[in-house]
Amino acid sequence: MNTPKQLQGGKVWLVGAGPGDPELLTIKAARLISSADAIVYDHLVGDGIMDLARPDARLIYAGKESSRHTMPQDSINQLLVDLANEGLSVVRLKGGDPFIFGRGGEELETLVASGIPFEVTPGVTAAAGCAAYAGFPLTHRDHAQSVTFVTGHLKDGTVNLDWAALARPCQTVVFYMGIGAAEEICRQMINHGLPSMTPAAVIRNGTQADQRTLLATLGTLPQRIVESGIKPPALIVVGSVVGLHEKLNWFEKQ
């Protein structure tokens, strides 16, 4: 086996870990993880991925769970600067893709301000990975000519979104971090024109062995979430492509 390529110290690699299944890591992401001096990793990094790290690597957990943050974002930003200034090769490892609701841009702005060199390695974002494993084609000529990724939790804690745009027909809408706001999301989508019978679903722990897909409609989804007890991490998917689950579901049937 080839020895991992030595990484230049005093630098940060912003790396997407994908949606959970370790086999969805890119080859480059796996190489960087196995070569880094230090890895600052998030809660949504899939099981087994951290096993790729060097035995002597410094591993720092900086996960953010619902209503519980291990480390404030400003502290994470400064940590990356401090580690790089120690001359270390640093991997900042995020679930999914670091530029899709991963705050990657905020962290890079801090690095730029501090003169720290960096590179970005994209990952399979949760929407694409989880939808594929649930049998939801995000676009389909008969169902959805566009797809929108949207956060269900804004920085100020509200869900003040462009509902008129999100409720347009013939598209798929994927809400990240939306479980806590599911009732408001469904109410607004219906109020802005989508039928209450529009298919909707929740995918929890997508692409992982314990993946769970909850099927419903906009009218029934909030109650179904309560009844099922489903908790984050999970995505909400809205659109008629959800109706293809029974036909195209391959992962949960294995």
List the SSEs and their pairings.
Layout: E1 11-16, H1 27-35, E2 38-41, E3 58-61, E4 64-65, E5 68-69, H2 73-85, E6 89-94, H3 104-114, E7 118-121, H4 126-134, E8 146-151, H5 163-166, E9 171-176, H6 182-191, E10 199-204, E11 212-217, H7 221-228, E12 234-238, H8 245-248
Parallel strand pairs: 1-6, 1-7, 2-3, 2-6, 8-9
Antiparallel strand pairs: 4-5, 9-12, 10-11, 10-12
Helix pairs in contact: 2-3
Explain how this protein is built.
Helices cover 27% and strands 22% of the residues. It contains eight helices and twelve strands. The strands form three sheets. The protein has a five-stranded parallel beta sheet with strand order 3-2-6-1-7, sandwiched between helices. The chain has 254 residues and is of the alpha/beta class. The chain is elongated, with a radius of gyration of 19 Å. It folds into two domains: 11-121, Tetrapyrrole methylase, N-terminal domain (Cobalt-precorrin-4 Transmethylase, domain 1), CATH 3.40.1010.10; 126-248, Methyltransferase, Cobalt-precorrin-4 Transmethylase, Domain 2, CATH 3.30.950. The model has no long low-confidence stretch (mean pLDDT 94). Helix 5 (163-166) links the parallel strand 8 (146-151) and strand 9.
